[in-house]
Amino acid sequence: MNYVFMTDSNSDLTYTLKDKYDIPVVYMPYVLDGVEYFADLGRGGNSKVFYDRMREGALPITSLLPTASYLEYFEPILQENDLLFVAFSSQLSATINNIYEAREILLQKYPERKFMVVDTMSISGPQMTLIMGAHALYREGKSMEEVAQWVEDNKMRSQAWIAVEDLKYLKRGGRISGAAAFFGTMMNLKPIVVMGKNGKVAPAEKAQGRQKALRTLVERTAQNIESPEAQTLIILYADAEEDASRLETLLRQRIPELVDIMAVPVGPVIGTHCGPGTVACCFLGKERPI
C-alpha cells in the first residue's frame, strides 16, 4: 500500500487486533494517583487494578495529547508514505485541533504527501467497529479516498447502547446533575446512554435494576442492528466479565443470526468517564436514533 492506516487508542482496539494487522496507534494519556500513564490496548493486563482503584475512591483524569506528540507519531510515517488517520470524535475532546495543527505543519514540510483525517464521531466500541470495517477495505487495496468515504458514509450507523453501573461517574463528567445522580442511586435506576448523532454520549432511557438494564441493551440492539450475520458485534465491559457473559447469552437468544461476538475490555481512558461496571453493545445498524 502507498499509504498507512492509523488510529488512536481511544478506539479501545485490542492489542491482538493491532498486532494481527500491524495498525499504528496513537496512545492517549491518563493520570491515576498523580502518575501519568498511556493506554496500552490491554497489553499490560492492568485494567483490574485501575478499576479497583476507582472503586476505592481514586479519581483518574484524562488530558489532551499535545501537538508535539502527534508530530512524533506522524512524521516518521509521512517521511515515506501518505497517511489516513481515523480519529475519535471531535465532540468529546479538543485534541483533534492538535491533530489538525500537526497535519498542517507536516504537509508544509512534506508537500508531496497526502494526509487525511477522518472524524468518526465515535469513541471506544463504535469507533472500533468503524476501524474494523475500514481496515478490511484497506487490506483489500482500496484507495485512501475510498476508505475514508466508507467511514464517512457509515459513521452514523455505528451505534453503542451503554449501561453504567454507578451514576457518580456520569455526574463527574457533567452528563447528569448531582440531584439526578442522588435520586437515581436511591431508586436503583441504571441509565442507558448512546453514542449520539452529534458525536457525544447522549441519555436514552433508564432501567430499574441491573438485569433490566442488560435486557434493555439486548432489545435496543435487536431493534437497531442490520445484517447481524455479516458483522462482529462488540460487547464492551469495564471490569464486568460476568455481565458481559450474561449479555452475550441474552444476545444469542434474542438475535440467533449473530455469528460473531467479541467481548472487549474498556480501557482506562474511556473507563475514567464511564466507571467500573459499564457494559455496552456496539454494532453497525440503522442511523443513530438520538
Main sheet: strands, sense, barrel: 6 strands, mixed
**Which spans have pLDDT < 50 for at least 5 consecutive residues?**
175-184
Q: How many E strands?
A: 13
- Based on helices, strands and strand pairing, what is the structural class? alpha/beta
Architecture (CATH level 2) name of the largest domain: 3-Layer(aba) Sandwich
Query: In one word, what is the shape?
Result: globular
Radius of gyration: 19 Å
Overview of the structural elements:
The relative contact order is 0.16. The chain has two domains: about 5-155, Rossmann fold (3-Layer(aba) Sandwich); about 155-285, Hypothetical Protein Tm841, Chain: A,domain 3, CATH 3.30.1180. Helix 3 crosses helix 4. A six-stranded mixed beta sheet has the order 10-9-8-13-11-12, with helices on both faces. The chain has a four-stranded parallel beta sheet with strand order 2-1-6-7, with helices on both faces. About 40% of the residues lie in helices and about 25% in strands. By secondary structure, the protein is α/β, with parallel strands linked by helices.
Keywords summarizing the entry:
single chain, 290 residues, alpha/beta, Rossmann fold, Hypothetical Protein Tm841, Chain: A,domain 3, six-stranded mixed beta sheet, four-stranded parallel beta sheet, 13 strands, 42% helix
